[in-house]
């Protein structure tokens, strides 16, 4: 019985193809994952930079900032919306300091009535105050979001009494009696209906929705994306 010695080189050659296959598979997998990530990032970026053919008209809309600012930021907001409260209290101040107060951006508020009668009443009040004094509108806007309950926000809280209470304290001061009459007569309903038509025409489905020079931002709380779009528009 003969014992034939195995050739080490021969054994090595037999094992190498398997190792090469594993390595090749790993490389292919890594490349596929990388392509998936890049494609996803590209898709998200494209989504963020989708520009409407013509941005909403801001004629007779509340505007804060320089009239000739290069960038127009539109907020579609609802006083009953807790996400709008968060955006107003945490994100708007940052943008105001960096872009609005420096004359680079002007901000427009468009009423979005996603919470029924209370949303409409708040919008009617805002428009009535705006018709009296444009600067007073922004004080009222801030006061309304501050007054929104931190919890149980779906409970009734936007009432005529609450609106008049807030209006009494804002500056520049307004004629609160006239505001009361305007609310009773629904005097500013035509302006609110204009906002409603903009919401419909531009397929607004969430609040807040942020639009920058006609570019609808997918995530209103992605400050990095918002600033990136503003900076690109400023440099355009």
UniProtKB/TrEMBL annotation:
Record's keyword annotation contains Ribonucleoprotein: no
Name of the featured protein: DsbA family protein
Protein family according to the UniProt entry: Belongs to the thioredoxin family. DsbA subfamily.
Upper lineage: Bacteria, Bacillati, Bacillota, Bacilli, Bacillales
Location of the Thioredoxin-like fold domain: 60-232
Xref: Pfam families: Thioredoxin_4
Record-annotated membrane-spanning stretches: 21-38
InterPro entries named among the record's database cross-references: Thioredoxin-like_fold, Thioredoxin-like_sf
Alphabetical UniProt keywords: Disulfide bond, Membrane, Oxidoreductase, Redox-active center, Signal, Transmembrane, Transmembrane helix
Keyword Disulfide bond (UniProt): yes
